[in-house]
Amino acid sequence: MITKNVEKAINEQILREEHSSRIYLAMASWAERNGFPGAANWLYAQTEEERIHMLKLVHYLNDRGGAAVIPALEAPGAAFKSLSDVFQQVLKHEEFISASINDLYSVCIKEKDFTSANYLQWYITEQIEEESTVRSILDQIKLAGPDKGGMFMMDKEFSVMATAKRASLAQSGGANAVT
Ligand code: OFO
What we know:
CATH class: Mainly Alpha
Largest sheet: none
Radius of gyration: 17 Å
Distance between the termini: 17 Å
CATH superfamily: Ferritin, core subunit, four-helix bundle
CATH topology: Ferritin
Bound molecules: hydroxy diiron-OXO moiety
Helix content: over 70%
CATH architecture: Up-down Bundle
Order of helices and strands: HHHHH
Structural class: mainly alpha
């Protein structure tokens, strides 16, 4: 059985993961409309991934005897200055999510819920990976510079990364993943 404080904190994280999915959906739509099909592809895949992060927590909470609450969502921002601006915002958001997972982990430790703390290790590792991927994307965007040829190559690279991301999501069980 899960304590009320852990249940509340996990429900807050469920909201943040779902909101992350919608933030990336708005970015994907912007990239698709602004001539970056590869980046749009990657962002759409990221949208799916965040939804899986949310679903995993829903299943986990319900399995432990808590109640996952499906929250109302606010609209994500939709105005971006450039592709670099989009990915700077992705990085900022992922840093925020890393901090919120750490806070959730602290609540679990405080409540002596070591099972949940252990479960969250997956999210902590995932955040290290996500932040590092976005930092390297930002480095590549910087390297490509304003040059159209560079951006074209970069956008192609995004599609390759999106395909790899989808393959790894499918391999890990996708939206059906419970643990
Ligand atoms: Fe990258 O945010 Fe989910 O956990």
